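**User:** Everyone, produce a chain:

**Assistant:**
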Amino acid sequence: MIRNLLIFLTVITNFVFAQDQVWEIVDIYNSELPNETIKCITLDSAGAMWVGTYMGGLAVLDGEKWTIYNTSNSELPHNYINAIAIDNNNVKWIGTDGGGLASFDDETWTIYKTSTSGLPSNVVMSVYCDNNGTVWVGTYFGGLAEFDGENWTIYNDENTPLLSNKVVTITKDIYDILWLGTQGGGIASYDGTNWNVYTERNSNIPSDYIYSIAVDEENNKWIGTGGGGISVFNDVFWIIYNSKNSDLQDDNIRPIMIDSDNNKWIGTYIGGIHVYNDETWEIFDFQNSSVPDDEITCFNYFNRKLYIGTERSGIIIRSDTTKLKPVVVPEKIIFAEIPEEQQFDEEIQVSEDIEEKDEPIVAEIPIVIVAPVVKDKPAFEDQPFVEDVQKSEETHIEIPEEIVVAVTEDEQIEEDIQVSEDIVVEEEITTVQEDSIPASLIPTDIDTRMKSKIVLVIDAADVYFDQKRLNKYKRSFKLLLNNRERVDDTYIVSILVFTSNYDVSPKKIQFTEKELKALHTSEVVYLAGESTFTEGIKKAFSLITADYDPQANNHIIAATYKFIRDDEKAKVVIKDNVENNNIIFSLIGFETSDWKMEHKMRNMVPKGESRYYSINPAGLKDNWSVTAQIGLSIFRGDLDVSKVMSFPGEFGFALNKQVLSTGMINGGIKGQFNFGTLNGEKNDHSFENKYKEGCLNFQVILNTWFNRNFRFETIRPYAFAGIGFINYRVLLRNGDGQVVNGYGYDVIDGDKNFNGTDPDKSKSATDLIFPLGIGANYKLNEKFNIELEASSRLISSDKLDGKVNWKNDKYWFISLGVTYNINQKEFLSDILTR
């Protein structure tokens, strides 16, 4: 047995080595951490942990020593810390929630506020220090700020394509391109010259509310969204992971971090920690692990330790962060001579089938030298990117037949590489075709987005004599472009105007600059002479196919009020272009109540992605409903200590008429009539108010959420406000039942002898009221809904309880109702945005 030997690797295939999961909790009970709401964690070059809390300032753990910086013991401008970044000079840049930006070099503080610097907002949400010495600052109201140490440059929605000034996350990819995540404006990239903005309207990103962006080793951007799960973007294509198509438990993503083994660590709002290794998911939450909090706020990774911030439970430190991936050891094993001073004291047992050698064994192993086509580097199709290949002096390398090695003169390896005789070594740099480059290796500074083309088709004879029709056309196109297609400036939109009546010139249909801008239109094309509908759409299709990308979102949208007589010819043209040229066709048919016209138009549109919209406008008799309700009344006034709730305290009914729709909301008029009682007792006095009230309200019903990611179907919230009156009679009695005062009765204030216990009625009192209310209706079927409603009444009167003091009375209703719908019909916006 040779004592100079040995390390040997036995042949193991698909072996997984897993460490025990150790979660170390750092909180206010076992440390000097000032607060358990953690917003950010960063480690400096020495391994000291810098922790930003939301109320306790800045905490630093260096070894076992804690140091706390707050507004009381330092120049830190605010105790609410949102972000910490450390630059190449070990200077800490601290973003606060209202105190601006602070820098700290371990001795001196420098404070940057809107009043003392070019910082555009004192609410700093994110800070990023790049390798060039630039500090990038994301603010919540002022957009993005670039600081080079002396000068500030501001980027916002006024001077750039940014759609939101709320920048909450910043990073750079492997090509030094800046990526921003915003609240409500999607993500944006900036290469120093050009901006690209990606939103729900112009890309496949599922939400415009971004909380995190992390870049993996292949330059894929992992984007955490609010409500839409995770988007992975390789600068061309999108992959979405959410609770419906993966093991992700919560679609509200907070931080994302990628460790040295390319595992993705994902923090969620209520679902704990998710780990994804590109194949399988693992979940750590409050129920299945010692993780104390399912709301994760931040990650940091340093020296194979994972640092996790939580919303309520302090810091979690995970020492063994990953499960090692499967390992495959080649059949040819490398043996290396061990220096004498490093030899093992114990004797190493060697398998009998391993031959002992007096000299170090040289093994032959495959090696691939490759690089992507980026800048001036060579590339090989479908090969991984290996940045550095080190050659051991003892290693003999044999290159397989299928590998062609390409090395420039500047990159030649000094040592000789032994190559099999049947291998050809190229003298020139080998290049590959552009379309063979993997998508993940395409530089982001090249605009690779597909250009989509849309043509809007109008018959001038259809609308020239009726301006209202033309306005409906324009509104319909606008709704489809903005809501269905989500068009932005990357689209090419054209309007084609033809005429089916020779007496009406197409050029009589003109558009203002404002209208063209609203329709994202770059050109208006007029088809001269009289044309049929078929000829019009032929021209529209030719405008797209003349120069287009068949894989883009290409679309013809036509609108008509007329019965199309050449429908069979048009049907053939449409079908041919949809199937062979991959162009979607949509037809909007107005006033199609005639069944024959409806049938012909519907049959013109091929099944699949193409669409037909039948628009029959709602009339005066449509969209009515009536509601009957019963509820609880609650009083607040001078007599409001006890028995202020009455049930049933309200009976009533309402008549509703829907008058408009924007797609997101429905608006209507609500006439309401209620009657009931109000009661209350205080200091041995009581009152009873019998009232009638009538109100005229404007009611808004929510169809979709504000970012249009969620549509209300079964349960729909609503709110209303209006004006009305209350007519009432009230008696105020003492403990003996005698009437002290009242309104609507023949009484004298304070004269118990005159009033007695049962005074005669007189003219009832009336006051002006302003109703405000919210509620939700639950759809049982097309005819019936159940409604739950809470409302209040603003009133400038103190007489409701019969006692006039110094403050006005108030009352509320909580009611349950049943609604019956009459002649329900969808509005234009409902049809075109659904």
Residues 46 and 239 are 38 Å apart (CA to CA).
